[in-house]
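Quick one - inputs below.
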Amino acid sequence: MKIRFKFERGDELKYIAHLDIMRLFERAFKRAEIPVAHSQGFNPRPHIVFALPMALGLSSEGEFADAELEESYEPDIFMERLNAVLPAGIKVTGAWEAKNGKNIMAIVEAARYRIDFRPFPGFDIENAISDVLNREHIIVMKKTKSGEKEFDIRPFIYELSCEVTGNTGHFNVLLGAGQDNNVRPELFIAGVGVCINSEIEIIRMHRIMLYGRADNKWLPLSDKKFL
Amino acid sequence: MKVQLDDRILLSVEKPARYTGGEWNMVVKNPEEVDVRFAFCFPDVYEVGMSHLGMKILYHVLNKRSDTYCERVFAPWADMEKIMREKGIPLFALESKDPVTEFDIVGFTLQYEMSYTNVLNMLDLAGIPLLSAERGENDPFVIAGGPCACNPEPLADFIDFFVIGEGEEVILEIIDAYKEWKKSGDKRNGFLRMAARIPGVYVPAFYRVSYNEDSTISEIRPIYPDIPEKVTKRIIKDMDAVEFPEDIVVPFIGTVHDRIMLEVFRGCIRGCRFCQAGFIYRPVREKTPEVLLRQAKGAIEKTGYEEISLVSLSTSDYSCLMDFTAELLKLTEERKINLSLPSLRIDNFSIELMEKAQKVRKSGLTFAPEAGTQRLRDVINKGITEEDIVNSVRIAFEGGWNSVKLYFMVGLPTETDEDIEGIANLARKIVDVYYEIPKEKRAKGLNVTVSTSCFVPKPFTPFQWFGQDTVEQFHNKQMLLKEKLSRASRAITYNWHDARISFLEAVFARGDRRTGRVLLRAWRNGCRFDAWNEFFRYETWIKAFEEEGIDPAFYANRTRDFSEILPWSHIDMGISQKFLQRECEKAYKGIVTPNCRMQCTGCGINAFGTGICSTVSSKGGKS
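Output:
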């Protein structure tokens, strides 16, 4: 059976790379003695697919992955067994049977982030937001395999709000995500910098949720439309 | 006070998870609820230290005690060190993030000589006085063990006491003594006096070394009557009964050896004359297959690792290898776990075993002929013939391998240009073996890699008296071989080791107390991570020798008389001086010595009355 699970990664574990997270889960499945199906061929790999890679430094409460299991599990029991063998800082918070054959990486189209930043003196929330939202194009440089490339992120900023508490600013932003048009939070901040003509210092980045698109709505990957 | 590392620090250094801990199976205790806090320090970066089995064993043994909390400390990489020094962050332990100064005992493992400057650097980052003599009542005790501790003298000024031999039992005795001392309220020196009474503990401050006019040692003498003249190494008598960790810490980031390491036996029957491990870990003591299978199963269940590796000095010599691996394979196949088998001699059995065990590409197979001619292989007592090597390689090529690595040493005693040419000839023969196999039966694209290291004479080997080749001699030999190999075949790649590093290794492997001054000077002048090419600063080292008025050639390149008092002559590794001398003389005559299973050759280790010594008689065969 294919099981979709949601997990969070706290500050303790945000200093490891995506590949490390993958290995962490592979080993946790072995400890939990939950048999994962393996790929065929020369070097069989366990079938665990993560919806969207997590950059080093990013914490999250809304990650998703699919695991192809060799046996059937009640989602609750699956979650309980896995949580018993996960290190502090990573926790499975939901599990569902996924009958939809679609690759989870192809379902993701947006991600919501909370980005804490240090506002400079004179930073004006209203102005900043309208500066961003009123533009037709926001061109930033995106690193690709073949070097740097111009990338217009404006079409992939779907929602934006901002507040300042004390000496910290918080953006809450829904950005394009997935295989096409992925806007990393750093790129968004660079884009805001372009709009307001000033650099912004990021304090921390946190992913809140991953979404797919159905019925003209943004729905979490755990929505039954995607299962 | 815990050390605080925020995002701005951690996201600006390479691999921040080196410093954050929290791995699966990390031991968590309340430091306030234990009597003894032990900081286990590995003087290299996290990925190297976390690959070391000895640390895993002692971490487990110490933490089994409810009165003790053992935590891990690694050398911060240069980027982190810079930030720590700028911000005044002291060296800390991964478990609690508490500064190392808050610990009772700070223990270093000495795995290679080129990590010695890291020991000093870590003490300095911790804020612990570097010199043992300068430490006060509130400083932790700094102790050290591991293979390099068999000649502890270069670090004698910095380490309060050394632990000689295997640590599982003696470390517990040290903890007991420490608790007793702490309760007594006695002065710092009182604990050192207590520790010195524990067999296997060497307190350098309690020995006086005197020198002759020619700079050789005239005497090494204890300064108190109750201090032993010789410190004898500790060993574990029963490998089945000793604690072995199954719940090992599983790192988040990739490490050098990122797998379960199952120790199959200690010691080696072979007695290759260049190999220090082959002598200092004697006698051979095996675990039974039942115990190994239990430990393998336990470790697999408790870690979730996808690979398990058999660890020993020569896995092919395990007496129950066939039956044991058959059972182990059942366990690993069922759970889709790789079995890795390093240090196997290549024969039909091992090729078959490797095909079963690993689903990996048939790339590199490694052979270690060590020397290029039979004459020189006899000198070093490497008990393999050219025929063995050629046969093994043929089996490998027929089995579908197309890439072999060949390890040799240059600078071995009695070596001539003929022996160097012998390396090229052997490599050429291996190329020929490949082309003798019909095209349709061999894998495409032959690749033969020849690697040479530079021979470093080590204490407690038959070559401990031998003067190492100079850097220039090494260089000439490397260039000669390079030329011969380039003519031999285009399929051969040649790698050689930096002779300057081997030269320094030779100095500190056989150095006396005076060489410690050079370590201190070199560290002050910026040397650290000397085993890493990107940090190795040869000129700085040479300058440190000059500034301290110490001639490195005296230690590295000088051939000693058998009668000379060697700097480690007060350390007893169980191998008699007479035996080593006899082996040395046989080496120069090219006479080989049978392995321990064939016959006892009287090295002296049978005084420990355990392991292979209790089953093999001096007449040969089993008694």
